Amino acid sequence: MSWESSGLYYSLINQAVARELGGLHSARCILSSVDFAEIEALQVAGDWATAGQVLAEVARGLQAAGADFLVLCTNTMHKVADAIETAVDIPLLHLADCTAAAVHAAGLSTVGLLGTAFTMEQAFYRDRLAGHGLTVLVPDDDDRAEVHRVIYDELCRGVIAPASRRRFQDVIGRLAAAGAEGVILGCTEIELLIGADDCDLPVFPTTRLHVEAAVAATLA
User: Which top-level group of life is the source organism from (predicted)?
Assistant: First the structure.
């Protein structure tokens, strides 16, 4: 939900539309960018009800502005997906569903999950993936804490550190040793740091997968 990953979404969406339609085409989209500091404070406080109300109001505004469907550009805040969906009449393109479809398309069933502590430790995201028949592995306590720290202290602030990339590679290696066949980059900022070329396992980059699904829905 930081502007760092929102910028990546916007670039990837327009690049994809240009590839599909050619020429000077770009995406017709309505972007509502929240103040991430306010959302992060609600996350830390565990006040998910208020966070859901905030994003539901944003969703109503997007619907009123003419959006045909919604893309919530953050894995973590899918914890309040139900609050958003009940606030509007247009569909929400759920990020975990797009990701699960890609994992199945790759012929895999057991995946490691990297993301914020909320995404890795709470049930809302893992259960959604499991509902698609996937087995989801998460890092141990120390690794989860480090992944979470890098996301909030570095990536959300635009800091891309090679040392952190190496630490993420080590975490992924331990997930592979535990049986992961692939790894879900389950925070939309992680792709700013690491990608398929940095990993021995197949990588499922949720930002790009979400963009692909959104563009396909737009052009259908």
Answer: Bacteria
Give pLDDT, residue 62: 98
In this structure, the chain runs to a length of: 220
Which residue is catalytic, options 74, 99, 119, 188? 74
* Cα–Cα distance for residue pair 87/173, rounded to 1 Å: 41
What spatial distance separates the first Cα and last Cα of the chain, rounded to whole Å?
Answer: 27
Q: What is the pLDDT averaged over residues 120-146?
A: 98
CB 79 within 8 A of CB 124: yes
Is 187 a residue of the active site?
yes
Catalytic residue among 73, 119, 187, 188: 187
Contact 121, 138 (CB under 8 A): yes
Choose which CATH entry (3.40.50.170, 3.40.50.1860, 3.90.226.10, 3.30.450.20) describes domain 3-94+209-219: 3.40.50.1860
H or E stretch at 50: helix 48-64
Question: Measured on CA atoms in the order 186, 176, 194, 210, is the torsion positive or negative?
Answer: negative
Encode 198-207: b = buried (16+ Cβ within 10 Å), e = exposed. Answer: ebebbbbbbb
Of the pLDDT bands very low, low, confident and very high (cuts 50, 70, 90), residue 170 is: very high
Reported as a pLDDT band with limits 50, 70 and 90, residue 172 is very high
95-206 maps to which CATH number?
3.40.50.1860
pLDDT tens per residue, range 64-94: 999 999 999 999 999 999 999 999 999 999 9
What is the average pLDDT across 159-172? 98
